[in-house]
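Slide 14.
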Amino acid sequence: MKNFLTDKGNIILILFYFILSIFSIVSIYLAEYGNRTSTTLFIKQILFFILSFGIIYLIQKIDIFTIEKFSIAMYLFSIAALLLLLITPENIAPTINGAKAWFNFGFFTLQPSEFAKISTVALICLVLKQEKFYKSADILKLLTLGIIVAIPFFLIVKENDLGNALFFIFLFLLLTFIVSNKNKTFLRIYLLLLSLISVIILSALFFPRFLNVFGFKSYQSNRILSWIYPEEFKNDFSYQSNLVLNEIAKGSLTGTISKNITHIPELHNDFIFSVIAKNFGFIGSFIFIATYLIFLLYILRIVKKCNHGNFSYYFLILAVFTLAFPFIINTYSTTGLLPVVGISLPFISYGGSSLLANSILFAILLKINNTIYYEQLADFEEKYDYMDKNISDFDEIDMISYNDTDQQI
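Slide 15: predicted structure.
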Protein backbone atom coordinates (compact mmCIF):
# COMPACT_ATOMS: atom_id res chain seq x y z
CA MET A 1 0.00 0.00 0.00
CA LYS A 2 2.87 2.39 0.82
CA ASN A 3 4.40 1.87 -2.63
CA PHE A 4 0.98 2.46 -4.20
CA LEU A 5 0.55 5.79 -2.38
CA THR A 6 4.06 7.06 -3.15
CA ASP A 7 4.18 5.82 -6.75
CA LYS A 8 5.08 8.74 -9.02
CA GLY A 9 2.55 7.52 -11.57
CA ASN A 10 -0.27 7.76 -9.01
CA ILE A 11 0.57 10.52 -6.59
CA ILE A 12 -1.09 13.54 -8.26
CA LEU A 13 -4.43 11.84 -8.96
CA ILE A 14 -4.50 10.27 -5.48
CA LEU A 15 -3.84 13.72 -4.00
CA PHE A 16 -6.90 15.05 -5.84
CA TYR A 17 -8.94 12.09 -4.53
CA PHE A 18 -7.96 12.85 -0.92
CA ILE A 19 -8.64 16.59 -1.30
CA LEU A 20 -12.15 15.87 -2.64
CA SER A 21 -12.75 13.34 0.14
CA ILE A 22 -11.90 16.01 2.74
CA PHE A 23 -14.33 18.44 1.05
CA SER A 24 -16.99 15.71 1.18
CA ILE A 25 -16.56 14.63 4.80
CA VAL A 26 -16.39 18.20 6.13
CA SER A 27 -19.40 19.29 4.04
CA ILE A 28 -21.55 16.34 5.15
CA TYR A 29 -20.63 17.00 8.79
CA LEU A 30 -21.56 20.69 8.41
CA ALA A 31 -24.81 19.76 6.61
CA GLU A 32 -25.88 17.66 9.61
CA TYR A 33 -24.68 20.33 12.04
CA GLY A 34 -26.62 23.02 10.12
CA ASN A 35 -29.80 20.92 10.17
CA ARG A 36 -29.43 20.21 13.90
CA THR A 37 -29.35 16.44 13.36
CA SER A 38 -27.03 13.84 14.87
CA THR A 39 -23.72 13.69 12.99
CA THR A 40 -23.77 10.07 11.81
CA LEU A 41 -23.82 10.33 8.01
CA PHE A 42 -20.32 11.76 7.81
CA ILE A 43 -19.03 8.74 9.79
CA LYS A 44 -20.70 6.43 7.25
CA GLN A 45 -19.16 8.47 4.45
CA ILE A 46 -15.70 7.97 5.98
CA LEU A 47 -16.32 4.20 5.95
CA PHE A 48 -17.48 4.44 2.32
CA PHE A 49 -14.26 6.28 1.42
CA ILE A 50 -12.14 3.60 3.14
CA LEU A 51 -14.02 0.86 1.26
CA SER A 52 -13.79 2.79 -2.02
CA PHE A 53 -10.07 3.36 -1.63
CA GLY A 54 -9.61 -0.37 -0.97
CA ILE A 55 -11.44 -1.09 -4.26
CA ILE A 56 -9.23 1.46 -6.07
CA TYR A 57 -6.14 -0.34 -4.74
CA LEU A 58 -7.41 -3.76 -5.83
CA ILE A 59 -8.29 -2.58 -9.35
CA GLN A 60 -4.67 -1.47 -9.80
CA LYS A 61 -3.77 -5.18 -9.76
CA ILE A 62 -5.77 -5.66 -13.00
CA ASP A 63 -4.33 -4.66 -16.38
CA ILE A 64 -6.25 -2.47 -18.83
CA PHE A 65 -6.80 -5.28 -21.34
CA THR A 66 -8.60 -7.34 -18.69
CA ILE A 67 -10.81 -4.36 -17.83
CA GLU A 68 -11.65 -4.04 -21.54
CA LYS A 69 -12.70 -7.69 -21.72
CA PHE A 70 -14.91 -7.40 -18.63
CA SER A 71 -16.72 -4.27 -19.89
CA ILE A 72 -19.40 -6.37 -21.65
CA ALA A 73 -20.01 -8.44 -18.51
CA MET A 74 -20.20 -5.28 -16.37
CA TYR A 75 -22.76 -3.75 -18.71
CA LEU A 76 -24.95 -6.87 -18.76
CA PHE A 77 -24.74 -7.16 -14.97
CA SER A 78 -25.82 -3.52 -14.48
CA ILE A 79 -28.76 -3.99 -16.88
CA ALA A 80 -29.80 -7.12 -14.98
CA ALA A 81 -29.65 -5.14 -11.72
CA LEU A 82 -31.86 -2.39 -13.19
CA LEU A 83 -34.40 -4.96 -14.40
CA LEU A 84 -34.37 -6.74 -11.04
CA LEU A 85 -35.01 -3.45 -9.27
CA LEU A 86 -38.26 -2.93 -11.18
CA ILE A 87 -39.74 -6.29 -10.14
CA THR A 88 -38.43 -6.34 -6.56
CA PRO A 89 -41.05 -5.89 -3.80
CA GLU A 90 -41.35 -2.54 -2.00
CA ASN A 91 -39.93 -3.91 1.24
CA ILE A 92 -36.56 -4.49 -0.48
CA ALA A 93 -36.74 -1.77 -3.16
CA PRO A 94 -38.87 1.02 -1.62
CA THR A 95 -40.05 4.09 -3.51
CA ILE A 96 -38.21 7.13 -2.10
CA ASN A 97 -39.15 10.67 -3.19
CA GLY A 98 -41.17 9.21 -6.05
CA ALA A 99 -38.31 7.07 -7.42
CA LYS A 100 -37.81 3.33 -7.09
CA ALA A 101 -34.05 3.48 -7.56
CA TRP A 102 -32.51 1.71 -4.54
CA PHE A 103 -32.16 -1.76 -3.09
CA ASN A 104 -32.53 -1.48 0.68
CA PHE A 105 -30.57 -4.20 2.49
CA GLY A 106 -31.05 -2.71 5.94
CA PHE A 107 -27.47 -1.80 6.79
CA PHE A 108 -26.84 -0.22 3.39
CA THR A 109 -28.66 0.79 0.16
CA LEU A 110 -27.52 0.19 -3.41
CA GLN A 111 -28.40 2.34 -6.44
CA PRO A 112 -27.81 0.34 -9.68
CA SER A 113 -28.15 3.40 -11.95
CA GLU A 114 -24.85 4.79 -10.61
CA PHE A 115 -22.99 1.64 -11.68
CA ALA A 116 -24.92 1.51 -14.99
CA LYS A 117 -23.33 4.84 -15.96
CA ILE A 118 -19.80 3.47 -15.49
CA SER A 119 -20.45 0.14 -17.21
CA THR A 120 -22.14 1.86 -20.18
CA VAL A 121 -19.14 4.16 -20.60
CA ALA A 122 -16.76 1.16 -20.48
CA LEU A 123 -18.74 -0.78 -23.11
CA ILE A 124 -18.96 2.25 -25.39
CA CYS A 125 -15.17 2.67 -25.23
CA LEU A 126 -14.76 -0.97 -26.22
CA VAL A 127 -17.06 -0.43 -29.22
CA LEU A 128 -15.42 2.85 -30.30
CA LYS A 129 -11.95 1.30 -30.54
CA GLN A 130 -13.09 -1.32 -33.09
CA GLU A 131 -11.76 -0.59 -36.58
CA LYS A 132 -14.90 -2.04 -38.18
CA PHE A 133 -17.06 0.37 -36.16
CA TYR A 134 -14.87 3.33 -37.05
CA LYS A 135 -15.18 2.65 -40.81
CA SER A 136 -18.97 2.16 -40.78
CA ALA A 137 -21.49 4.84 -41.81
CA ASP A 138 -22.66 7.50 -39.35
CA ILE A 139 -26.17 6.11 -39.17
CA LEU A 140 -24.90 2.63 -38.21
CA LYS A 141 -22.56 4.10 -35.59
CA LEU A 142 -25.32 6.15 -33.98
CA LEU A 143 -27.76 3.24 -34.12
CA THR A 144 -25.29 0.96 -32.32
CA LEU A 145 -24.45 3.54 -29.67
CA GLY A 146 -28.11 4.54 -29.39
CA ILE A 147 -29.11 0.98 -28.49
CA ILE A 148 -26.35 0.69 -25.87
CA VAL A 149 -27.38 3.99 -24.26
CA ALA A 150 -31.15 3.56 -24.66
CA ILE A 151 -31.45 0.30 -22.66
CA PRO A 152 -30.25 1.72 -19.31
CA PHE A 153 -31.90 5.07 -20.09
CA PHE A 154 -35.43 3.63 -20.43
CA LEU A 155 -34.98 1.36 -17.40
CA ILE A 156 -33.88 4.32 -15.26
CA VAL A 157 -36.77 6.43 -16.60
CA LYS A 158 -39.08 3.59 -15.58
CA GLU A 159 -37.64 3.86 -12.07
CA ASN A 160 -38.51 7.58 -12.16
CA ASP A 161 -34.89 8.61 -11.61
CA LEU A 162 -34.84 11.68 -13.88
CA GLY A 163 -31.43 13.00 -12.77
CA ASN A 164 -29.46 9.90 -13.77
CA ALA A 165 -31.59 9.37 -16.89
CA LEU A 166 -30.52 12.79 -18.20
CA PHE A 167 -26.91 11.63 -18.08
CA PHE A 168 -27.57 9.10 -20.86
CA ILE A 169 -29.23 11.68 -23.11
CA PHE A 170 -26.24 14.02 -22.96
CA LEU A 171 -23.83 11.08 -23.22
CA PHE A 172 -25.42 10.20 -26.56
CA LEU A 173 -25.12 13.82 -27.70
CA LEU A 174 -21.40 13.79 -26.88
CA LEU A 175 -20.97 10.50 -28.74
CA THR A 176 -22.78 11.99 -31.73
CA PHE A 177 -20.16 14.72 -31.84
CA ILE A 178 -17.26 12.24 -31.42
CA VAL A 179 -18.21 9.61 -34.03
CA SER A 180 -19.94 11.64 -36.76
CA ASN A 181 -17.80 12.06 -39.87
CA LYS A 182 -20.23 14.55 -41.39
CA ASN A 183 -21.03 17.81 -39.58
CA LYS A 184 -24.64 17.69 -40.76
CA THR A 185 -25.30 14.52 -38.73
CA PHE A 186 -24.69 15.92 -35.26
CA LEU A 187 -25.99 19.38 -36.17
CA ARG A 188 -29.36 17.88 -37.06
CA ILE A 189 -29.49 15.90 -33.83
CA TYR A 190 -28.51 18.95 -31.76
CA LEU A 191 -31.13 21.10 -33.49
CA LEU A 192 -33.73 18.40 -32.81
CA LEU A 193 -32.81 18.40 -29.11
CA LEU A 194 -32.89 22.21 -28.88
CA SER A 195 -36.30 22.20 -30.56
CA LEU A 196 -37.56 19.61 -28.08
CA ILE A 197 -36.25 21.63 -25.11
CA SER A 198 -37.90 24.77 -26.53
CA VAL A 199 -41.22 22.94 -26.89
CA ILE A 200 -40.99 21.67 -23.29
CA ILE A 201 -40.26 25.17 -21.91
CA LEU A 202 -43.02 26.77 -23.99
CA SER A 203 -45.42 24.03 -22.89
CA ALA A 204 -44.51 24.73 -19.25
CA LEU A 205 -45.17 28.44 -19.81
CA PHE A 206 -48.45 28.28 -21.69
CA PHE A 207 -49.77 24.69 -21.64
CA PRO A 208 -48.48 22.99 -18.46
CA ARG A 209 -50.73 19.96 -18.86
CA PHE A 210 -49.16 19.29 -22.28
CA LEU A 211 -45.95 18.23 -20.50
CA ASN A 212 -47.64 14.94 -19.66
CA VAL A 213 -47.32 14.06 -23.38
CA PHE A 214 -43.52 14.01 -22.90
CA GLY A 215 -43.86 11.62 -19.95
CA PHE A 216 -43.46 14.21 -17.20
CA LYS A 217 -45.14 13.45 -13.88
CA SER A 218 -47.16 16.25 -12.28
CA TYR A 219 -44.48 16.99 -9.65
CA GLN A 220 -41.81 17.11 -12.39
CA SER A 221 -43.89 19.61 -14.37
CA ASN A 222 -44.29 21.68 -11.21
CA ARG A 223 -40.52 21.67 -10.71
CA ILE A 224 -40.07 23.25 -14.14
CA LEU A 225 -42.83 25.76 -13.45
CA SER A 226 -41.40 26.60 -10.02
CA TRP A 227 -38.03 27.26 -11.69
CA ILE A 228 -39.66 29.64 -14.19
CA TYR A 229 -42.05 31.24 -11.64
CA PRO A 230 -40.33 30.81 -8.24
CA GLU A 231 -42.52 33.38 -6.47
CA GLU A 232 -45.75 31.60 -7.39
CA PHE A 233 -44.51 28.33 -5.88
CA LYS A 234 -42.58 29.75 -2.94
CA ASN A 235 -44.74 27.87 -0.40
CA ASP A 236 -44.38 24.43 -2.01
CA PHE A 237 -42.15 23.46 -4.95
CA SER A 238 -39.83 26.49 -4.70
CA TYR A 239 -39.76 26.43 -0.90
CA GLN A 240 -36.70 24.20 -0.61
CA SER A 241 -34.78 26.03 -3.34
CA ASN A 242 -35.52 29.40 -1.73
CA LEU A 243 -34.22 28.15 1.61
CA VAL A 244 -31.04 26.91 -0.06
CA LEU A 245 -30.48 30.23 -1.88
CA ASN A 246 -31.00 32.12 1.38
CA GLU A 247 -28.38 29.94 3.07
CA ILE A 248 -25.91 30.52 0.20
CA ALA A 249 -26.47 34.30 0.53
CA LYS A 250 -25.49 34.11 4.22
CA GLY A 251 -22.06 32.83 3.21
CA SER A 252 -21.05 36.17 1.70
CA LEU A 253 -17.29 36.41 1.03
CA THR A 254 -15.73 34.25 3.75
CA GLY A 255 -18.65 32.12 4.99
CA THR A 256 -20.41 31.53 8.29
CA ILE A 257 -20.69 28.28 10.23
CA SER A 258 -24.12 28.46 11.82
CA LYS A 259 -27.22 26.31 12.18
CA ASN A 260 -30.15 26.74 9.78
CA ILE A 261 -33.41 28.22 11.00
CA THR A 262 -35.38 25.40 9.36
CA HIS A 263 -34.51 21.87 8.32
CA ILE A 264 -33.56 21.62 4.62
CA PRO A 265 -34.12 18.14 3.10
CA GLU A 266 -31.34 16.53 1.03
CA LEU A 267 -28.83 19.15 2.16
CA HIS A 268 -26.15 16.45 2.41
CA ASN A 269 -26.86 15.17 -1.11
CA ASP A 270 -28.57 17.22 -3.85
CA PHE A 271 -27.71 20.56 -2.20
CA ILE A 272 -24.24 19.78 -0.83
CA PHE A 273 -22.71 22.67 -2.79
CA SER A 274 -24.86 25.11 -0.78
CA VAL A 275 -23.16 23.83 2.39
CA ILE A 276 -19.76 24.74 0.95
CA ALA A 277 -21.05 28.14 -0.24
CA LYS A 278 -22.66 29.02 3.09
CA ASN A 279 -19.91 27.81 5.44
CA PHE A 280 -16.88 28.90 3.40
CA GLY A 281 -18.36 31.74 1.37
CA PHE A 282 -17.40 32.89 -2.10
CA ILE A 283 -13.70 32.24 -1.46
CA GLY A 284 -14.31 28.66 -0.31
CA SER A 285 -16.68 28.01 -3.22
CA PHE A 286 -14.12 29.37 -5.68
CA ILE A 287 -11.38 27.14 -4.23
CA PHE A 288 -13.65 24.09 -4.43
CA ILE A 289 -14.75 24.76 -8.03
CA ALA A 290 -11.15 25.53 -9.08
CA THR A 291 -9.92 22.28 -7.48
CA TYR A 292 -12.57 20.23 -9.26
CA LEU A 293 -11.91 21.89 -12.63
CA ILE A 294 -8.13 21.43 -12.30
CA PHE A 295 -8.80 17.76 -11.52
CA LEU A 296 -10.81 17.41 -14.75
CA LEU A 297 -8.23 19.34 -16.78
CA TYR A 298 -5.49 17.07 -15.43
CA ILE A 299 -7.42 14.04 -16.75
CA LEU A 300 -7.74 15.74 -20.14
CA ARG A 301 -3.99 16.31 -20.07
CA ILE A 302 -3.50 12.54 -19.76
CA VAL A 303 -5.61 12.07 -22.93
CA LYS A 304 -2.84 13.75 -24.96
CA LYS A 305 -0.45 10.98 -23.92
CA CYS A 306 -2.77 8.19 -25.16
CA ASN A 307 -2.69 6.59 -28.58
CA HIS A 308 -5.63 8.08 -30.47
CA GLY A 309 -8.53 5.68 -30.87
CA ASN A 310 -7.68 3.05 -28.25
CA PHE A 311 -9.80 2.08 -25.20
CA SER A 312 -7.86 4.30 -22.79
CA TYR A 313 -8.20 7.35 -25.04
CA TYR A 314 -11.98 7.15 -25.20
CA PHE A 315 -12.35 6.14 -21.56
CA LEU A 316 -10.52 9.23 -20.31
CA ILE A 317 -12.66 11.54 -22.48
CA LEU A 318 -15.91 9.93 -21.32
CA ALA A 319 -14.65 9.84 -17.71
CA VAL A 320 -14.28 13.63 -17.78
CA PHE A 321 -17.84 13.92 -19.09
CA THR A 322 -19.13 11.44 -16.46
CA LEU A 323 -17.67 13.62 -13.69
CA ALA A 324 -18.33 17.02 -15.28
CA PHE A 325 -22.01 16.52 -16.19
CA PRO A 326 -23.35 15.90 -12.63
CA PHE A 327 -21.01 18.60 -11.32
CA ILE A 328 -22.61 21.18 -13.64
CA ILE A 329 -26.18 19.97 -13.06
CA ASN A 330 -25.79 19.81 -9.27
CA THR A 331 -24.15 23.22 -8.84
CA TYR A 332 -26.50 24.90 -11.33
CA SER A 333 -29.57 23.34 -9.66
CA THR A 334 -28.37 24.46 -6.24
CA THR A 335 -27.86 28.05 -7.37
CA GLY A 336 -31.19 28.17 -9.26
CA LEU A 337 -29.73 28.30 -12.76
CA LEU A 338 -31.45 25.00 -13.61
CA PRO A 339 -34.54 23.21 -12.25
CA VAL A 340 -33.83 20.80 -9.40
CA VAL A 341 -33.54 17.31 -10.91
CA GLY A 342 -31.90 15.45 -8.03
CA ILE A 343 -28.36 14.37 -8.94
CA SER A 344 -25.36 13.76 -6.69
CA LEU A 345 -22.14 15.75 -6.84
CA PRO A 346 -19.39 13.17 -7.59
CA PHE A 347 -17.06 12.42 -4.65
CA ILE A 348 -18.79 15.13 -2.55
CA SER A 349 -22.45 14.24 -1.95
CA TYR A 350 -23.39 11.65 0.64
CA GLY A 351 -24.06 8.20 -0.79
CA GLY A 352 -22.25 4.89 -0.91
CA SER A 353 -23.41 3.86 -4.39
CA SER A 354 -22.37 7.13 -6.02
CA LEU A 355 -18.99 7.12 -4.27
CA LEU A 356 -18.27 3.45 -5.04
CA ALA A 357 -19.25 3.83 -8.71
CA ASN A 358 -17.21 7.00 -9.20
CA SER A 359 -14.28 5.41 -7.35
CA ILE A 360 -14.35 2.49 -9.81
CA LEU A 361 -14.24 5.06 -12.62
CA PHE A 362 -11.37 6.82 -10.84
CA ALA A 363 -9.53 3.51 -10.35
CA ILE A 364 -9.64 2.74 -14.07
CA LEU A 365 -8.38 6.18 -15.11
CA LEU A 366 -5.69 5.91 -12.41
CA LYS A 367 -4.61 2.57 -13.90
CA ILE A 368 -4.53 4.10 -17.39
CA ASN A 369 -2.42 7.02 -16.16
CA ASN A 370 -0.02 4.70 -14.33
CA THR A 371 0.34 2.44 -17.37
CA ILE A 372 1.09 5.41 -19.65
CA TYR A 373 3.60 6.82 -17.15
CA TYR A 374 5.67 3.64 -16.98
CA GLU A 375 5.43 2.99 -20.72
CA GLN A 376 6.83 6.47 -21.39
CA LEU A 377 9.49 5.95 -18.71
CA ALA A 378 10.53 2.66 -20.32
CA ASP A 379 10.69 4.33 -23.76
CA PHE A 380 12.85 7.13 -22.34
CA GLU A 381 15.23 4.66 -20.68
CA GLU A 382 15.45 2.65 -23.90
CA LYS A 383 16.28 5.76 -25.91
CA TYR A 384 18.80 6.84 -23.27
CA ASP A 385 20.51 3.43 -23.33
CA TYR A 386 20.55 3.54 -27.15
CA MET A 387 22.10 7.02 -27.18
CA ASP A 388 24.60 6.01 -24.49
CA LYS A 389 25.61 2.96 -26.52
CA ASN A 390 26.02 5.05 -29.68
CA ILE A 391 28.14 7.59 -27.82
CA SER A 392 30.32 4.78 -26.42
CA ASP A 393 30.72 3.29 -29.91
CA PHE A 394 31.59 6.71 -31.30
CA ASP A 395 34.23 7.25 -28.59
CA GLU A 396 35.69 3.82 -29.29
CA ILE A 397 35.87 4.48 -33.05
CA ASP A 398 37.37 7.92 -32.43
CA MET A 399 40.00 6.43 -30.12
CA ILE A 400 40.94 3.80 -32.74
CA SER A 401 41.22 6.51 -35.40
CA TYR A 402 43.38 8.60 -33.07
CA ASN A 403 45.74 5.65 -32.35
CA ASP A 404 46.04 4.89 -36.08
CA THR A 405 46.88 8.48 -36.80
CA ASP A 406 49.43 8.53 -33.98
CA GLN A 407 51.14 5.43 -35.32
CA GLN A 408 51.37 6.97 -38.84
CA ILE A 409 53.00 10.03 -37.38
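Speaker note: Residues 91 and 104 are 8 Å apart (CA to CA).
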